[in-house]
Amino acid sequence: MGRRRIGAWNRNPRSAHLALLVAVTLISGPAILLPTIAARGAPAATISFEFWGDPAEAAAYETMVEAFTALHPEVAVQTEYVPNGDDFYARLATGYAAGDAPDVFLINYRRYGQFAAAGALEPIAPYLDQSAVVAASDYYPAPMAAFTFDGELMCLPQNLSSLVVYYNRDLFDAAAITYPAADWAWDDFLSAALALSQDTDGDSKTDQFGIGIEPSLVRVAPFIWQAGGELVDDLDQPTMLTIDTPAARAGMQFVLDLSLVHQAAPSESDVLVQSLDDRFMAGNIAMLLQSRRVVPALRQAADFTWDVAPLPRHEETAGILHSDAYCLNAGSESKAAAWTFIEFANGPDGQAIVAEAGRTVPSLRAIAESPIFLGPNDGVATGTERDRTDPPASARIFLDSEPAMRRLPATATWPEVEQAFNEEFSLAFYGKQSLDEAIAAILDRTAEPLRRES
After folding, report:
1. Is 267 exposed, middle or buried (CB count within 10 Å of its CB: 0-12, 13-18, 19+)?
2. Given CA atoms 149, 359, 291, 447 in this order, what sign does their dihedral have?
3. Which domains does the chain have, with CATH numbers?
4. What is the pTM of this model?
5. What whole-number distance in Å separates Cα of residue 60 and Cα of residue 13?
6. How does pLDDT run across 317-370, given as a tens digit for each residue?
């Protein structure tokens, strides 16, 4: 996989932003090297920073890196942007195998365990303990726990996102449906999904769907927990999945029925033609289950009023943690410079820059509770045109969901477990096998990786 360079840095920040967005849209391939940003004069150290996401995210991180190098001209930063998540993780593994992994990278807590177990990460706790900029107590505890491996903090959490329901207020208004309440339940959720699934052009086919939900473990898990079920026998050292119980089955069946019984979700062929995120942005899905990641793209592309609501409740209230962290390569030859970058990126200044772009729910309490993230009305919708400014208006939903957030395991083999679940549950979601068959296949395919981990 070759690396491609974008041309020389444009000194006009607005032009540089535009050049970046055009470049990342036009250049194909697994990785894009943005220009090394440094102040005039030779820097004392050069570090690499790798991440993945959409062009709007790339622009946010570019702005943050520019601010860092203005403050720290002694450190040059080579930003390596990978548009696709699968390519990012493959590239990261290949880089470690070749001794060419980035100095710093952003990774989800469900994927870092394999690197921590291999000794590929420099524990971040000793650096944090000595920092005069940030302290462990400044961050929300849930993501800090997620990135603690064998009792030691390995990476510094950047965000505290959760799974929420994005909804198109214009479609709700057109159907005379009340916006989701903070305490809405499964029945309310289903009722709205059914009412918002419509044949808008009279061809006897649904072309506006009530709900968009990816048939994956990170989307299904909250419904299993809400029904009173569990996923694993032990969160930190799982030896088996516990999805073959009445409660777990009820959660999975509710999700399956959205597609198979109620036909309120797009079919497999529909999704192949247009992704769920794109369908929501185009106004063809009324509600979308997603994390905070989609906000920058929605702000750019959606031409309707939208907001967020918490997940519906059932027997229990439960959400799922979505969190990424800055990790430091144990093999980095510039660890001090790399930590200086992480300290800035995940400190008040860096988190404020990325939060303003809409990408993150800041893990720093001070930034998350500020107007930088919550907006002018303390993260509460007004029901007026004011809500169209830097949505979501109900940003506080993300913070209010924190007490009910649960996390998935972060063991070395957990990505294999998720892949097996996603593949088999997708077959059931699209009517290619029964729930019984899916559960049996999931348990069979995950037994070996879980046994290998234990």
Report:
1. middle
2. negative
3. 4-160+323-374 (3.40.190.10), 162-318+392-453 (3.40.190.10)
4. 0.88
5. 12
6. 999 999 999 999 999 999 999 999 999 999 999 999 999 989 899 999 999 999
